[in-house]
Amino acid sequence: MENFESQIIRRCQAGELKEFGQLYDRYIKKIYDFIYYKTMHRETAEDLTSQTFFKAMDKINQFDPAKGNFSSWLYRIARNTVIDHYRTKKPETDVADFWDLADNANLELDLDLKQKLAEIEKYLTKFRPSQREIVIMRFWDQLSYQEIAEITGQTAANCKMIVHRVMTGIRQDLSLIVLYLLIISKQLLWPLT
Amino acid sequence: MATDLKNILEELYQIDPELKQHETELITLIKKIIANKPDTKFDKRFAKRLKAQLLRQSSTSTKSGFNFFAEFANTRKLAFATMGIALIALVAIPVLTNLRSKNFLPQEFDQTQFNVTKLDHEAFGPLAATKLSQSNDAILKADNISGEGELTRVAGLGGAGFAAAAPSVVSMPAPDFVNYNYIYVGDELNLTDEQVEVYKRVKGVNLAPQASNLIKQLSSNIADLSKFNNAKLENATIVEDKSFGYIINIMFGEGMINIDRNWQKWPQINCTTEACFEAQRVRESDIPTDETLIKISDDFLKEYGISLSNYGAPEVQQTWLRAYAETVNKADFYFPEIISVVYPLKINNRSVYEQDGSSKMGLIINIDVKNKKVAGVSNLTTQSYQSSDYTAETDDNRILKIVAKGGINSWFYGDNQATVNIQVNTPKIELIRYYQYRDNQSQELLIPALIFPVIDPPTDQGYYRQNIVVPLVKELLDQSANQDFGGPIRIMVEPQTVTDKIAPTIAPLR
């Protein structure tokens, strides 16, 4: 039995594009959030979300369920839309989110985010963009590794491994800081004579 | 969050069990990252606005099923195109030059030949939904964690589809949702047939050996195709190289032919300014009368020898008229560039509807309104079927209870939403197209169903159902009762005052 989403897609592909509204309802917030985490700017996220859904509706005939699920296909469109957006800002690199553009004075970020981002930036910016992206997709977008794999074109096992490396890396950094603080405090308590 | 944290930890331990020693640190870290997730400031007004724009756009563009080929024709990657064309020429031309003599195409690939092979009782296996695929499970999981409301699939029957009835969460904007209560005012149903005949279209077409042998003979500078073992010819594409030419795609595996515009040979709009686009817009005066549309369609079918022996009288799809009626400022309305004429498929004198009863299924002819020409043909299929009897539902009351909820594909927005009563009339027994997934393949079944016509459908924006559908196969209704899937889909909405908007002449449910 075909699931409800597949029926809607099939009907859209048969020309009943008004049915696309039901797909939109299911994914609008997820896709908007996904884009927001990459742009951290409401107007930009809204603009890129609009582009994503118009592209998806326009290209719905190219979606092939044999090659993956609709959700991953839609996220891939969103991801490529964000990459295209940043290419216009920094054409020489394949940046996938705002973190790589932190040095760009013209970058627009929502003001209230600064403190939150500063907190997390110390953990995440030291990792490669591709690693960081997967961690955010897992932790913030709450996508499964299988979904992340389909969206990014990597294997699920590789995605898991990346999150593991990032978490281990952060943990070790924290351990070193704790150790350093411990040594310092001991030196303060029992200074070398 | 707790469940997700647990899942993340378990995933990490799968890779490195030793990490468990540092669980406290990890939990702190993960919590910190999750807690610092920014508020995305999702604006429901934006979501509503965008949806309106998308729906407006959707009403002005009609798509035929296989634009991939049109896309391909437009691509500028000439090298790839040349390779493709060379292969197509090698494979398709010899096959197609023999089409008329049917040297390569077997008898089944004859759309005029309608035949049904009767099989044993319930030969297609259970019709009820199987568990969702892994990918769809993933979708539901993702829904579950978005944290904004509840989506519960309950009743329905077969058609609707979220096979897993587990509560799930979906995030969506909240337009003005309304629950519809369908009241039967027709004649007594009198369902007496204990069995109903379900059909399955036989899709695959085995090409004559000469066609497959062709592949063995193929060799080029690109690749030696003869090295591929047990290779079969699955698709062939013909590109008509003339003004207003077509792309014809023959799918042997599906037993289907689709025809689309060869975009390179059709006039294109090359506007760069708003004024130019405005000047190119379809005007109301461009829309041909129904008679003209049907004549264009009939002439095309006659010219290309497409038989209508299994199809009913043509019907012009008028869906755009509704959108037009709902548009306040008529000057803003984008008239459709394509209008479809449908020749409804008839199986043993029964029409075939889409699963939700929204439209009749059949041969679709898309007509380019500006150029007054056929832009494409879709759903041109072989007409070879198998049939098998299934136990039918004969309990009128049970069926009418399902009708009251809206049958299959109904949506329920919670008890706190406004409710509108709508009357439905005496049904006809017709067929609905129903897809069954089995062994990673989609089977197309035609299932007898009661089609209840809606009397005076509400004119509110957003209401679209013209028929309420209840399949007659008992197994599907049983599944519904067991809540494997179906039933009203509960959708997140903001609380609203309960109002019974209209109450036209209400006949008591029998």
Features:
heterodimer, A: 193 residues, 68% helix, B: 510 residues, 8-stranded mixed β-sheet, 7-stranded antiparallel β-sheet, disordered C terminus
Sum this structure up briefly:
The complex is a heterodimer of chains A (193) and B (510). Chain A is mainly α. Helices cover 68% and strands 0% of the residues of chain A.
Describe what this molecule looks like in 3D.
- The complex is a heterodimer of chains A (193) and B (510).
- With 193 residues, chain A is mostly helical.
- Chain A has helices spanning 4-13, 20-39, 42-58, 70-89, 114-124, 129-139, 145-152, 156-189.
- Chain A is globular, with a radius of gyration of 21 Å.
- The N and C termini of chain A lie far apart (80 Å).
- Residues 102-106 of chain A have low confidence and may be disordered.
- Residues 62-104, 130-175 and 483-510 of chain B have low confidence and may be disordered.
- Chain B is α+β, with helices and mostly antiparallel strands and 510 residues long.
- In chain B, the strands form 4 sheets. In chain B, strands 1, 4, 10, 11, 14, 17, 18 and 19 form an 8-stranded mixed beta sheet that branches. Chain B has a 7-stranded antiparallel beta sheet with strand order 5-6-7-13-12-9-8, sandwiched between helices.
- Chain B is globular, with a radius of gyration of 27 Å.
- Chain B has 12 helices and 20 strands.
- Chain B has helices at 2-15, 23-35, 44-60, 67-74, 78-97, 134-144, 209-217, 274-280, 290-303, 319-326, 396-405, 474-481; strands spanning 114-118, 152-153, 178-184, 195-201, 235-239, 246-251, 256-261, 315-316, 338-344, 346-347, 350-353, 362-368, 373-381, 383-391, 411-412, 418-424, 428-438, 441-453, 467-471, 489-490.
- In chain B, a hairpin with a 4-residue loop joins strand 12 and strand 13 (373-381).
- The chains are: A mainly alpha (193), B alpha+beta (510).
- The interface between A and B is large, with 73 and 90 residues.
